[in-house]
Amino acid sequence: MSAKLAVLEQALAPFVSARMRVSVMGSYLQVHDVPFATEQRKVSFGTMICALVHDEGSVTPPGQDHQIWFDGAYPYLADGRSMEPWLARVAMPPGFQICEGVPAQYQFSNKPDGFTGYATHFEKMRHYWNQLVGEALALDPFLNARLQQRMGEIRVATQVSPFAYPDTCSVRGKFMRASQRLGLQNVAIIGVGGTGSFVLDQVAKTPVHEIHIFDSKNFESHNAFRAPGAASPADFGQPKVAYFARMYSAMHLGIRPHHIKIDASNVEQLRDFRFVFVCIDHGPSRRLICDFLIANRIPFVDVGMDLSMSAGQEIYGTVRTTICLPDANDHFWSRAPDMENSGDGLYEENIQVAELNSLNAQLAVFKWKQLFGFYAMQSNALQQEFMTQTTSLVLDDRKGAARAP
Amino acid sequence: MSAVTNIILNMDPVAVHQAKLSYAHLVHLAYPGDPPAEHSEIRYTVTVSYEDGSGERSMSLSSHPVEVKEGMVCNVRKTGRS
Questions:
Q1: Nearest Cα residue in chain B from A195
Q2: Alpha helix stretches (DSSP H) within B1-82
Q3: How far apart are CA B40 and CA B61, in angstroms?
């Protein structure tokens, strides 16, 4: 038995002793077949759900988190009166799921008198159980005997998480469902230089199963000034992909480094990606890679900037983010440069513009998350240009709100 | 003789006589040594911001010409670096 399963079995043992049927779906606990009284004074059965934050070593007590979800009709008192205001409710939208496979119709909120926090999930769930089941028992004289004959049970659905530790952020924030939409099989980041490294910094915090990073260059001191985190001299001289793979593997278990430059001999490796971030400098490589992605109907984003020094010795320029979708690609080559010399040489001089690299990356990652349903999208501008000296974000190539497949 | 309008192009002041400017016009003003945009392999990112509050424009080769206004800020860039 895994350490995690042992921890769960220990924490959930009181449910089994109380003859309750519970299951764990990722970071949620479900208590099934909970009897309650309906408005028509009949006994019905529902499911109570609450967050269950746990890892290999322990289950975090609910503490102040006293709310639960309920999948079933709203419960009534045995005499037909509503349970409000004792049981405050929020109705969920039709078809709502807390996470994949965990539906809920209501969120409930009630605290016992003198509430200071729950030490265990059993204590918390029993509080709601006692109230709901108490009313059902009053309607059916045989219900108690049937509940006493039940066998308690624990079921744990093993979910494959790409993270080295639990995503407690999404659970506590109650946005697990939205987060799961980013659980793609894989994405590729081509080029982990200034902008690509910031793309990785964000994508590594999403549940994408595999993040493949491609770059043929080594990590040197000048790169450190355009990369997230703080590198030490011992990090210099190794392949960029090795440096970043090691750094981000502390958090994400699916980082796959490829110490190669994509060219005609190996572009085929990109065929099976669900999304690609193209973060390169070289125009002809952009032509090769993006033509391949378009031909193979792979959605992607291409980023690029061009900075110069003004007569007054100030830096200015434009940061471009161009999205390309399988059914919206006509604009792409009117926007993305494929020529050998694709920008002022100033950038080659390793100017410190990490915030522009980061901004370019954030715009790209934001659009990716929007296309896959994490962020709402009411307008889909495939071209975004940030002009530095006016602080303008300019949008174009609007294609309706078509999402990626 | 048409009136002169002062615009900012890649941070330099430029006086223009036209009432409207196309993508190709702006490219020529910014990079007079580059081939004409209509026949060029070079892709430029052309961004215009009107400083009178009337918004911004992004232009590609097929875009309609944009109105010229006093003080408009234009960037014509080759945005290939990352």
A1: B82
A2: 23-30
A3: 10
> How far apart are the CA of B60 and the nearest CA of chain A, in angstroms?
6
A336 vs B contacts (CB less than 8 Å): 43
Structure tokens at A167: 């995503």
- The residue with tokens 């060219």 is A263
Which run of H or E residues covers position A36? strand A28-37
Structure tokens at A351: 């100017």
ipTM of the shown complex? 0.96
**Which candidate from B61, B73, B77 shows the least CB-CB separation from A306?**
B77
Residues in A closer than 8 angstroms to B77, CB to CB, are 305-306, 317-318, 320, 343
d(CA B48, CA B73): 6
Q: Which two tokens stand for residue A314?
A: 């100030």
Residue A343: pLDDT band (50, 70, 90) is confident
Q: Does the pLDDT value for residue A262 go beyond 60?
A: yes
φ/ψ of residue A130, rounded to 5: -60, -40
Write out pLDDT tens, residues A151-176: 988 888 766 678 887 777 676 666 77
Query: Tokens at residue B2, please?
Result: 């048409």
Query: Are A339 and B41 within 8 A, CB to CB?
Result: yes
B5: Cβ contacts below 8 Å, ≥ 6 apart: B15, B16, B17, B68, B69, B70
- Nearest-CA neighbor of A19 among A111, A145, A148, A128? A148
- Cβ contact A311–B75 (<8 Å): no
Residues A278-328 have pLDDT tens digits of 999 999 999 999 999 999 999 999 999 999 999 999 999 999 999 999 999
pTM summary value: 0.80
Would you call B79 and A279 a contact, using CB atoms and an 8 Å cutoff? no
| Nearest chain A residue (CA) to B71 | A390
Dihedrals phi, psi of A305, to nearest 5 degrees: -140, 165
Residues in chain B with CB shorter than 8 Å from the CB of A357 are 82
For chain A, which domains are there? 3-161 (no CATH), 181-398 (3.40.50.720)
**Shortest alpha-carbon distance between residue A29 and chain B (Å):** 45
B5: helix, coil or strand? strand
User: Is residue A405's pLDDT more than 60?
Assistant: no
Find residue A277's DSSP bridge partners. Answer: A189, A301
Contact (Cβ atoms closer than 8 angstroms) between residue A191 and residue A278:
yes
Distance CA A164, CA A251 (A): 5
Closest chain B residue by Cα to residue A345:
B81
Closest by CA position to A49, among listed A171, A178, A181, A206: A171
Mutation site, A198, A339, A390, interface B, largest B CB count within 10 A = A390
**Short-list A396, A400, A394, CA closest to A378:** A400
